[in-house]
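Re: How this chain folds, sequence and tokenised backbone to follow
How to read it: Take the token row as a discrete description of the fold.
Start of record: The labelled sequence and token lines come straight after this line.
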Amino acid sequence: MFKTSLPFDLEDKVFEIRCDSDSVSKIISYFPFSDPEKQEICNVLNVNVFYGFHSIFTDSVSDEEWEKTKDQIKKRFKDELFDIDKISKS
């Protein structure tokens, strides 16, 4: 499996990283990354362009908004995933 070391502030915004053999194929964040954040991730991945950016929500949030609400957003999202799982097994 491919290992990458994103800076904590970016890693914290990531929901999931998917890999194909030895490279990252998809990065799913809670909210869309800004262009500078995408560039920083490309630098870490050592690629010029990466087309695998996806986000769960389409709204853009500032770093300040993210810091204020991230724990609540992550908890709610995980809770809703578990509820979906319970409904599908019923």
Notes: The two ends are 35 Å apart (CA to CA).
